[in-house]
Design brief:
The protein is an alpha+beta fold. It has one domain. It is built from 4 helices and 4 strands. Essential for spermiogenesis.
Length: 93
């Protein structure tokens, strides 16, 4: 049986654009990209995990493991400032 993670290993984005305004989704993309991943899909493929640890209060990503196995820890509050929003890449599948 092929695990769900392995079955998704060949998922590639069809298009990409920059974020225009902040949202919860953009906040989480910012956190994945800061840790060196496109988004949650790529993180799960690379790290072979089924879930990502999130803050229950906000739903924002709490902790990510970088490719070099060091960890990034994030606050419950918003971290992506308005001036950073345009740098966030939004991938469509």
């Amino acid at each position: 049986e092929v695990s769900g993670v392995m079955a998704e290993a060949d998922i590639k984005p069809k298009s990409i654009h920059s974020a225009k305004k902040w949202s919860d989704h953009v906040e989480n993309l910012y956190r994945f990209q800061k840790a060196g991943y496109r988004d949650e899909v790529e993180y799960k493929q690379v790290k072979q995990v089924d879930t990502v640890e999130c803050w229950p209060e906000t739903g924002f990503v709490k902790k990510l493991q970088r490719r070099d196995n060091t960890f990034y820890y994030y606050d419950k509050q918003r971290e992506c400032e308005d001036k950073e929003v345009h740098k966030v890449k939004v991938y469509l599948y």
